[in-house]
Design brief:
The chain contains 17 helices and 15 strands. It is α/β, with parallel strands linked by helices and 442 residues long. The protein has a six-stranded mixed β-sheet, with helices on both faces.
Length: 442
């Protein structure tokens, strides 16, 4: 399962013509929780819907065995199956049934699986777009989404190659996305100034997030006009934005600044007040939906629901980050943890399970705990492990646990949640410690 050079957009289009796969009256999309996979599934679903066929999106762990695929094949024997952004381990044969599934992105150990795979693990959104276009000419909205998904792979700050670069350039040339520099926090187009700062967790602004008094002082020092205090950050003119930036820079750790300020991309077909008008907004709301297991609501919004689903997702998002910030403040003043030379374990009795991945991430990033060792958060119900190495991702971790009976759930790009006994939790933690050390040496 070695990394391959990402294919170009033309190479994906050529490969798509040789794949023998037909959609059905009923289609099941089995999707990884990664935001770029959810985007690819959205694009494909819209194409299927335009053909007057039915689709159902089901979310699965990012790494599965061929046995899992065969079980799905039997369960949905009358449906066409499309698997999006999932790594498939094992060298057994996938059962044909009425037809083989189509694999969009992901990696595999099996030559058989590779024969009906379109794209690679790094080109999931682009491959989804190419397949959707082969079914029916896609609309500009889908190209815009595909560009967003391509930008999200490995983060916007990483250079793009192959089909990802091609898709982004195509969307730019069609006026569907525009590069901009500025604030990248959630709510830049919709939340009042102070709330965008107050509830920021991507990134967490140490001494600012959750502190209304400090937020007010920052806006006052930046001389933001009173009439703009309850308007979004995007409403500031260039001089106001510059003053606010200058004040924030003096109060933040230098490592936080590139997360707060920098290059972002506008989706030009989104309304000015939409929380997903910027790719950074999709990134944040997608990560929260994954952590909270609300990916269905995310896909509903991506499919076009800007009413109830969007409102539900925003409310859930805001409540989530209020809970995260409250817990971080508690940790800063009442940290109860045990440290070894390799790990940190923090007891958070009674905390909500769904906030633990973000709490662990922020605790590592802000230096509340040692920033080079994995942290295990225990709320007496589950054990969530978050690791610091950017070279270690969830798929790499899950591959190591497939042969173990312990129930492991991917809860973000850099965390897993374990449901098991103390011995299973300890074994899992030690395994992640070794993976984190190994990833750091690459």
């Amino acid at each position: 399962m070695t990394a391959k050079k990402p294919p170009s957009l033309k190479a994906l289009e050529k490969a798509c013509t040789s794949i023998n796969f037909q959609t059905s009256d009923q289609n099941i999309l089995v999707t990884s929780p990664y935001p770029e996979a959810a985007i690819a599934s959205t694009i494909i679903s819209q194409a299927i819907s335009s053909l007057k066929s039915l689709f159902h999106i089901s979310f699965q762990q990012p790494v599965v065995t061929i046995d899992t695929i065969n079980t799905l094949r039997e369960k949905y024997s009358s449906s066409a199956i499309i698997i999006v952004g999932i790594d498939i381990l094992g060298k057994k044969k996938i059962k044909k049934g009425k037809g083989y599934p189509l694999i969009i992105g992901g990696t595999s150990e099996s030559e058989q699986v590779n024969s009906f795979t379109l794209g690679t693990d790094s080109t999931v959104a682009a491959a989804g777009y190419v397949f959707a276009k082969s079914l029916k000419d896609t609309i500009d909205y889908n190209l815009q989404l595909a560009a967003a998904g391509s930008l999200l792979h490995n983060g916007m700050n990483e250079s793009k190659r192959g089909a990802n670069k091609d898709i982004i350039e195509l969307a730019k040339n069609n006026g569907l996305i525009e590069e901009r520099k500025g604030f990248k926090i959630f709510g830049v187009t919709m939340l009042p100034l102070d709330e965008a700062l107050l509830y920021s967790t991507h990134p967490y602004l140490t001494t600012i997030s959750g502190n209304q008094k400090v937020c007010d002082a920052i806006l006052n020092e930046a001389e933001i006009p009173i009439q703009k205090l309850r308007t979004p950050l995007s409403n500031l003119n260039s001089s106001e934005a510059q003053r606010l930036t200058s004040v924030l820079i003096t109060r933040l750790d230098p490592s936080t600044i590139p997360q707060l300020l920098g290059i972002d991309y506008i989706l030009t077909q989104e309304r000015d007040i939409s929380p997903i008008r910027f790719v950074s907004g999709i990134e944040t709301i997608g990560a929260t939906a994954w952590t909270r297991n609300e990916l269905g609501a995310l896909v509903s919004v991506l499919l076009g629901d800007r009413g109830r689903s969007l409102r539900t997702l925003i409310d859930s998002h805001m409540n989530h980050h209020k809970d995260v910030i409250s817990t971080i403040h508690h940790l800063e003043s009442h940290l109860q943890g045990n440290s070894t030379t390799t790990t940190t374990t923090v007891k958070l009795t009674g905390s909500k399970t769904e906030i633990l991945p973000d709490v662990g991430r922020i605790a590592l990033e802000s230096g509340i705990i040692d920033s080079v060792r994995p942290v295990a958060l225990d709320n007496d119900e589950v054990y969530t492990i978050v690791w610091p190495s950017s070279e270690l991702n969830t798929k790499m971790v899950l591959q190591e646990f497939l042969s173990i009976d312990t129930k492991i759930i991917a809860t973000s790009r850099k965390s897993i949640t374990i449901i098991g006994n103390d011995e299973e939790k300890d074994i899992a933690l030690q395994k992640i410690v070794q993976l984190n050390i190994g990833a750091g040496k690459k």
